[in-house]
Amino acid sequence: MQLRVTAARPGVVNFELDIQKEHTNRLNILHGGTLACMVDLGGSLAVASRGLFATGVSTDLSVTYLSSGGIIGDTIRAEVTCDKFGKTLAYTSIRFTNAKDELVARGSHTKYVALAWKDPQNITDELSPKAEKSA
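^ thats the sequence. predicted structure below, dont judge the formating
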């Protein structure tokens, strides 16, 4: 898919995609399935940005299409946020904008992460906010 991550911090990831022919539908505009795939991938990236190596499995995914995402040669941008990060479920939301910074779609993705917490490659402790010690 040639997606580019442009920024990442714990709980938030920004990425973009240059629209190519394989990302479009028969009307030569960005295919809704491409956006749905980006919601799925984006949700996993947001969970990974919180320190989980294995990001769990999807339990729910939705996309709301507000306007055309663009044509071949345009760039679609996304910002995905991990809204809630629990022991069992992680909830993410995503916003898609065009080159004019207009909202073209939004989505949400829920992941079952209970088993993912057991992966030895997790770095959740390293990414957790540290409480400052008072003097």
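The helical segments are 32-48, 124-127.
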